[in-house]
Amino acid sequence: MASLLQPDRVxxxxxxxxxxxxxxxxxxxxxxxSELRSLECVSHEVDSHYCPSCLENMPSAEAxxxxxxxxxxxxxxxxxxxxxxxxxxxxxxxxxxPSKTAMKKAYYLACGFCRWTSRDVGMADKSVASxxxxxxxNPHTQRINKLIEYYQQLAQREKxxxxxxxxxxxxxxxxxxxxxxxxxxVEKYGLGTRLQRQRPGAPITSLAGLSLKEGxxxxxxxxxxxxxxxxxxxxxxxxxxxxxxxxxxxxxxxRLLQPDFQPAGASQLHPKHKHLLIKRSLRCRKCEHNLSxxxxxxxxxxxxxxxxxxxxxxxxxxxxxxxxxxxxxxxxPEDINSTAKVMVPTKELVLAGKDAAADYDExxxxxxxxxxxxxxxxxxxxxxxxxxxxxxxxxxxxDVTVSFKIRHDFRNLxxxxxxxxxxxxxxxxxxxxxxxxxxxxxxxx
Amino acid sequence: TNSAxxxxxxxxxxxxxxxxxxxxxxxxxxxxxxxxxARIIAEAGPIVIGEGNxxxxxxxxxxxxxxxxxxxxxxxxxxxxxxxxxxxxxxxxMSQALKIGDNNVxxxxxxxxxxxxxxxxxxxxxxxxxxxxxxIPENTVIFGSGCQRRVQTERPQPQTLQLDFLMKxxxxxxxxxxxxxxxxxxxxxxx
Lengths: 445, 191
Fold this sequence. Notes:
A: about 450 residues; five-stranded antiparallel β-sheet; B: about 190 residues; mainly beta; eight-stranded mixed β-sheet; 2 helices; globular
């Protein structure tokens, strides 16, 4: 809920490497450690690549080949929106009978946001809806490829040198393995897979690599060093007097999105293929398990009477949950943001489990929880509304913030069942305590 | 006469729904379609709308008094607002511009100030508020939250298909305002 309304009203404190306070919609809960985790306490791993407009999934290797770009979708070079293909009918001579003309479909790319079309840069209309559009070739491709090859060979040589040195100093009892450093050197110019491919049958040990390498004839790649020119092309004569055609000048952003050409004129802005996005998986750094979704929904705030605040708490699990609220004690190191004192209900609150069928069951017996009307305002299936009293401490204008601790029981239904010799005991409940901060808004005189 | 001032002169062939609000001295050309809930209000002077325009729901075309002039002050000449042909006023836009040429598109929730002059082929993007005192050159596109500009190479196509469709379908579901046979031709002011 916090993601839809007022995301920063209720903050939870996360004990990670840094103490982070953020709303529940941005937090995760590790079932194995039973702790809250924020995005900074987890490691992000790339799962797969996909295109944001055609949602085509591709594995990482294929994405690397295609330079992390989608093959079908284009971005507008003017406003970076996704381009759509439009069709028009143009009269074209029939192949059989040149004198007659028939309507043929011609396709062009258009942007719905800034109204850029592929005809603006002189790209001809294509006769196929997709696959006909090509990005212009980079004139420096050949030189760049040659340079890459040369540097890859250099990296290989460096790696062999290092391995040779390591071998010379190797003690007989030390295991033979790729050192961390050599792996980095191998990866420096993207050499990793190529190395392994060159020796399909041989085991991957540095010793074996060395002996094989000397036998192979290495292709010597020579590159010409870049030449520094003395003479530069002179500026055109009317460079200072020619009036600027402002719509034709590209913005820096438009220019830098095309690093191959960096055109200064808008009539040279060609569309580029769309960049791929990644799906990431989050892994808890402490227990190395993949994370699951958070348990509790955040609360909604209704300021009804002067100093009494009504909070709602929703129980997302299907079992009964017991919640106790405790105010922060004096000198609590986590209580740094509160500007008001809060009196929380002392009794334990009981929330019924979530029952998806309860909404439709008219004959269900009303839940019998014997609520104290001073504490509990209303109760509806797995939701409860209760009062807390707020006493602002400071008189100056500012936001009223209160903090307290929520203590609740949690049954980990997804944990692996430990085989026990005794009869099956129900899943143990553990008690979790969270530090919560509520932002109630500005003080009104 | 006073009564003539408050009756809209709708040319034959225009389709103006009864649910639209037309106040003041408004002239509407042939083949123009005015959707229900569109508002054309001529407070501070008459409005002349040319042919083939498409004015969609909740669009507001208003010839209002400038902010610093009270409605009752004397010596204020009523200025005529002229709108050319083949313009499109999309849903929810507001236009106070005194002079609009041909083939312009004012997209949804755009806001045009009184001192703007649109030539032809201009596109004012969705939610763009343009309140400057200038003449927008031909084929300009204003888009984005920062009201960026660029120039198109071709003007937007006139919405003839849409107009034909609406002129057939709208009378099936709405009552139309009465058209007036005007003997004097309504000349849409060009440029």
